[in-house]
């Protein structure tokens, strides 16, 4: 099965960083069934920990030379593969249904509309679980943000432009690459308060 990084235009999270057991940090795979790609144990429930565990595992996929750092080049290469994985019909464009079904589960529905304004975290009620509705709203907001010409589709160019901005957000200390610590901080910050800095690993 294919690996995927999803419109990391992307995700956000709630709880502070918790240690994750190495066994749980397996390389994530796209599930072809009815569950979300984030539902690591396939029990039909996405927990905050599963969500964060997914991104830790995906970091290892992006880090193709296994040096503990993901460069802009590695990140872009991974995003091109992610786009292809999300483009289920091979049309060359992404539509909201493709994205939300992959990220939230086959029976997830695309919200008819979402409120404009400040982006909220995915676990809106902070119960440490992500409902299909929370998941769908979260990703639709990000889909709409990436759809710059507002035609209901995201092209590869729009996707990569959004991912380039996402890389800069991950790279907190602006040293030109991202580490797993920066990924942890990014996803644990939402919707909590952001950490001020992260030290570069030399």
Query: What is the alpha-carbon Rg in Å?
Result: 16 Å
Total helical elements: 6
Widest beta sheet: strand line-up = 1-4
Written as H for each helix and E for each strand, in order along the chain, the element string is EHEHEHEHEHEH
List segments where confidence is low: pLDDT < 50 over at least 5 consecutive residues.
1-33, 191-202
Structural class: mainly alpha
Distinctive features:
single chain; 202 residues; mainly alpha; Recoverin, domain 1; two-stranded antiparallel ribbon; two-stranded antiparallel sheet; 6 helices; 39% helix; globular; disordered C terminus
Task: Please provide a written account of the structure.
The chain has 202 residues and is mostly helical. The protein has a single domain, classed as EF-hand (Recoverin, domain 1), CATH 1.10.238.10. The chain is 39% helix and 6% strand. It contains six helices and six strands. The protein has helices at 48-62, 72-86, 96-104, 132-146, 156-170, 180-188, and strands spanning 46-47, 70-71, 93-94, 129-130, 154-155, 177-178. Strands 1-4 form a two-stranded antiparallel ribbon. It has a two-stranded antiparallel ribbon with strand order 2-6. The protein has a two-stranded antiparallel sheet with strand order 3-5. Helix 1 packs antiparallel against helix 6 (180-188), helix 2 packs across helix 5 and helix 3 runs antiparallel to helix 4. The longest helix has 15 residues, at 48-62. The termini are far apart. Residues 1-33 and 191-202 have low confidence and may be disordered.
């Amino acid at each position: 099965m294919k690996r995927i990084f999803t419109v990391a235009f992307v995700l956000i999270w709630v709880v502070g960083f918790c240690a994750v057991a190495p066994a749980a940090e397996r390389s994530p795979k796209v599930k072809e069934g009815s569950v979300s790609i984030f539902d690591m144990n396939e029990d039909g429930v996405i927990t905050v920990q599963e969500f964060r565990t997914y991104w830790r595992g995906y970091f290892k996929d992006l880090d193709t030379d296994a040096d503990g750092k993901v460069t802009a080049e590695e990140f872009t290469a991974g995003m091109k593969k992610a786009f292809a994985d999300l483009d289920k019909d091979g049309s060359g464009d992404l539509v909201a249904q493709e994205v939300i079904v992959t990220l939230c589960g086959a029976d997830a529905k695309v919200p008819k509309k979402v409120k404009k304004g400040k982006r909220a975290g995915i676990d809106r009620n902070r119960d440490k679980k992500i409902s299909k509705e929370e998941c769908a709203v979260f990703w639709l907001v990000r889909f709409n943000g990436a759809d710059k010409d507002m035609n209901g589709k995201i092209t590869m160019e729009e996707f990569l432009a959004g991912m380039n901005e996402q890389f800069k957000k991950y790279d907190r200390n602006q040293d030109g690459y991202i580490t797993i610590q920066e990924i942890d901080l990014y996803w644990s910050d939402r919707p909590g308060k952001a950490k001020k800095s992260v030290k570069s690993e030399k």
